[in-house]
Design brief:
Length: 567
Amino acid sequence: MEELEKVARKLIAMDNPVAYMDAFEVCRELEVLDSVKVEGTGRRDHGTIVYDEGNFRLAHELNRKIRAGANGLLRIGVDADEMQELYYKTHLFDAPHFFDSFCIYIEKDRAIEKQFYLPRRKQLKRCADGIQLLEEGKLHTLAISLAPGVGKTTLAEFGLAWTCGRNPFLGNLIGSHNNSFLTGVYGEMLRIFDPVGEYRWSDVFPGLSVINTNAKDLMIGIGYDKADDMRFKTLQCGGSLGSQLAGRVRASNWLYLDDPVDGIETAMNKERLDKLWQTVYTDFFQRAIGDRVKRLVIGTRWSLNDPIGRLEQYYDGDPGAMFIREPVLDENEESRFCYPYGLGYTTEVLLKQRDMMDEPSWLAIYQQEPIEREGQLYAPEELRRYFDLPDQEPDSVLAICDTKEQGADYCVCPVFYQYGNDFYLEAIICDNGKVEVVQERIAKMLVDRKVKQCRIESNRGGTIFAQNVEKRVKELGGMTSITTRWTQTNKETRIQVNSAMVKEHVLFKDESYYQKNREYREAMTQLTTYSMMGKNKHDDVPDCLAMFVDWQMSDRSNIATIVKRPF
């Protein structure tokens, strides 16, 4: 092994086309060094190669270096035809073992603008890596949550094609909420397997082919000849949920479930979600043969209690379960799925889509952050709104600050303009960035808004935070009186007890204002998605508002007693 490695590395270091091609041949030799080919133990095992782990790993490590070098020469036009051929040879060498290379290689004859994987690789590579871990048996469950139309189903189909080639004598079962989807998958898989079609699957798995099909039951058998026929076919697409096919379809390799929730009506109905989960768990998942079957669940999130949500709760902390969720907008409100060649979503399209949807639906379907509508404490229609402040000087300008607790938490500091018993939320900082930056922003806002009083929660280092803000306010020439207070009451109790006072006395800007104000929008999202049932990802804003009305109620001079007028 040492001699072959030395030769390969020496050739790679030469950085020229001939040396790279010679190095590749060395890698091919290194891969099979000390390997064992299984002979005569049964049709399913016959011809299997058991590689020496160290030699295999080194061969493919060096192969990736060769590919990088060939690609570098290709980019500058050195022996372009030969280097392009070598580039794809290195992917073909990796393809039976590595999913990423498989996806790249099988589309080598397709025009780049018609390819699926390469234009989307940057965004989907994390999901592809998850499929790699699933196939290797390092995961027993992989759930991928992506918005509609970004390529999750096609990626799963590529994964199925890959595992079918690797394990043709094991059965894979596909399930979904309707048969039309499964019919589409059946047709697409036949296209991938077609030896004279546009995909190069047969190059990766030579000798294998489709030996039988059943269009009625949506089944495909893969093998070397007709004698390889099995009771449970390599690919079974007839697994629509509740289809009563339990005795006819089974999985010994992958159980793949795609978009089990059929729409918002199911998502908003707890009884239907409960029934769906029972169907998924007691019917679909029970069609596994043995305890080594791997589960791939792909879909758009609709609810905390959808099947992916249930699996996430059940396998919390289990290293054998991976849950990948990718929002369409990043932290800067830019599209994460704007692909080349006009594919995917532009930022402009997504922002328009967001404006047309209600917040819970947008968060669930596009941002993969489902919330429970049941138990929603601050429904948007319950909140008081305003366009402009009253045409007079406010009685006071007040602020309160809930300092940041953990890395993902937000520091929240709203500014209220008081008019009688009403408090207009005119500005807000809702920032989970660096503390020193947030302190500077808050100090500047207090000065610019001429805030008279500001209370800062003194828990979790809040006293030092307050001192720093007060110092900076004075340096900027501000006159804000800053006080601190230790909060001892239970957060959830505080939020719920004070919610009625928030709804009665706090006014929020009209939605048309904060569509383009990211921080105000983030604050309103946290407020209107807070649920009294289940976990809340962020509760900093509702907690801060609860502390504000609690502060004002403790000072009876700020909120007058409401009495009936005689007229």
